[in-house]
Amino acid sequence: MKNNYKLFFVLSVFCVAIFSSCEIYNPAEPIPAYIHIDKITLAKNYSGFPNSSTGDEGSLSNKITDAWVYIDEQLIGCFELPVTFPVLYEGSHQIRIRAGIKVNGIAATRAPYPFYNDYNQTIYLGKGSKLNLTPSVTYNSSTHFAIMENFELVGNNMVKTIYSDTTLQTLTYPDPNVFEGNKSGIAYLGASGHKFECISVDSFLLPKGGASVFLELNYKSNYSFIIGVKAIGSVSTSQFAALSFNPSTTWNKGYVNLTPTITGAYTANSYKITIGMINNINSDSLVLLLDNIKLVY
After folding, report:
1. Can you give the pLDDT at residue 9?
2. Can you tell me the distance from the alpha carbon of 181 to that of 158, in angstroms, rounded to the nearest whole number?
3. Helix/strand/coil for 104
4. Which of 63, 171, 226, 278 is at 20 to 30 A from 160, Cα to Cα?
């Protein structure tokens, strides 16, 4: 019996020593600071665009979905907005935020938009504190706007092709379907029009070799439609489908990455942009509305 008491005493002392050691070598968890970003806005760049014939960026409509956050040039993460996230930083630091989009509207292809400037700010972080940021970005001044069609002027930069049996018309405010400003473009497909295709009036010399080329547009449609590229060569001309858009019953914003299409047609001398819809379901009421079509590189 005495031996059992001795054994119990030794084990008790041993357990106390172990738990005490755990307390010594497991310090308290650090207390993070928190950063909250509700949204990233797009603002006018008043420095202008010296490399673009338009001189400005046109509509500021956007669909910035993500914040790519760097602190002291270390990537913290890509966050879908709005977001509140913890960081283990204290004191004064430099934060850089890149405005992110869903390339081609696909959630799996999130990326910073290459034509927006970064947001930079010196911030102060304290343990347990919450910092609310309201980032604003602009188009960078080196952006070229090859097409800037907002349907506000007389005549359009996009015209019907020989394959189209319907035209691109113009809606005027106060029609409720106008997106912004006074006008938007619209194409009707029905019993008398089963094919719609429009093409840019001008052709463009676009950068090759992987340089970023995007088409931006606002759209509203009750059927799918396709963005394409017409590659014009010295001997032959080819047309490629770049992206198919799903229907959207409300006005939406698209960022179409044309870089792979342009790179794939690298032998072409110039390029045109096409937008088309085919009435494959024999509907008498298909509608495609367009606004703020921008070809940027």
Report:
1. 42
2. 18
3. helix
4. 63
Q: How far apart are CA 237 and CA 156, in angstroms?
A: 23
Per-residue pLDDT tens digits for 1-53: 445 444 444 444 444 444 444 445 566 788 999 999 999 999 999 999 988 87
The C-alpha angle 290, 217, 278, rounded to 5 degrees, equals: 55
Confirm whether pTM is higher than 0.85: yes
By CB neighbour count within 10 A (0-12 exposed, 13-18 middle, 19+ buried), where does 216 fall? buried
**Gap between the Cα atoms of 228 and 243, Å rounded:** 7
Q: What is the three-class DSSP state of 136? A: strand
Q: How many residues does the chain have?
A: 297
Q: Which is nearest to 297 in space by CA: 200, 189, 212, 180?
A: 212
| 3-state SS assignment for residue 262 | helix
Query: Whose structure tokens read 């046109």?
Result: 58
Q: Which residue has the tokens 């794939």?
A: 264
Here the tokens at position 152 are 């506000």
Q: What token pair was written down for 174?
A: 């106060």
Write down the residue that tokens 């509305």 correspond to: 289
Find tokens 């977001």 and name the residue.
Answer: 83
**pLDDT, mean of residues 110-132:** 97
Helix (H, G, I), strand (E, B) or coil at 53: coil
In the chain, what are the domains?
33-137 (2.60.40), 145-296 (2.60.120.200)
Name beta bridge partners: 96. Answer: 70, 120
145 bridge partner residues: 296
CA–CA distances in Å: residue 158 to residues 55, 75, 197, 291:
20, 41, 10, 11
Q: 23-53 burial, b if ≥16 CB within 10 A, otherwise e?
A: eeeeeeeeebbebebeebebeebeeebeebe
Position 260 pLDDT exceeds 60: yes
